[in-house]
Fold Nitroreductase/quinone reductase family protein.
Amino acid sequence: MPHAFQQSVITEFRANTGKVGGPFEGADLLLLTTTGARSGKPHTTPLGYVRDGRRLLVVASNLGAPHHPDWYRNLLARPTVRVELGDEEFDSLAVPAEGARRDELFARVVAEAPGYADYQDATDRLLPVVVLELPDPGATVPAITSLADKLVAVHTWLRGQLLHVGAETEAYFAARASHPGGGEPPAPGLGLQIRQRCLAFCQALEFHHTAEDGHMFPTMEGYHPHLMDVFDRLREEHVSIGAVQAALAALLADVTIAEPDRFRAELARMTEELTAHLDYEEEHILPLLADVPWPPAPPAS
């Protein structure tokens, strides 16, 4: 899709709560914003989708071209994406389906949008089917009125992602143990579900600790110099946890995790160190942030 035409579709989509005319009139369309694998910049792409329960399915067809589209390569490198769907906008974890599940979901897509079968016939490349989870309509979002609330929300998300990755990893090892001969289960490696979730966790953790080291801790030290030892300890723990994060990121560099046993060991190390770090930070830092409003007030003009 030429850039100028693509931008006109994006503009029309946003101006009309997801409805566009021309060749896409009446089509189910969403906007997917990925982060550039190399540039780190946001890139928005209009894509057709098929709804499957609480999931949206998009296909990296690239109109049957022999190579994957840029947006697909971006989400493999940075799995957290932004989805615009009519008047709804949300973050989602982008997970390409694998093996038999990919084939099942592709058949689901083709049943509703037969043109994707033509795109598959046009190329030797297996067209990836990417699953985007919709937000849970029953989820309650706690009110965030202070910086303490915001910190707790971030920590809760980090703990939750660790819990998910840990559970999925242990399920993999249980399947491997029950597989004849104790070898690899039918699905190779640890699977894209685990990889994408853990990679998103690592990237969010790095961003969080960088923001604390660069902004929050220096500001707080100015008001609480008697807690210098606390901030020094937190920074030292950031360095230690960063080493584990780097080890995990290296194992996640390929689409298939080639060393599942090492991944499991590093994940256990991350869980132990990060859990202790978050507990210590909340014990000493949260009381200092309870009266700091969030979001911060805009600067006086």
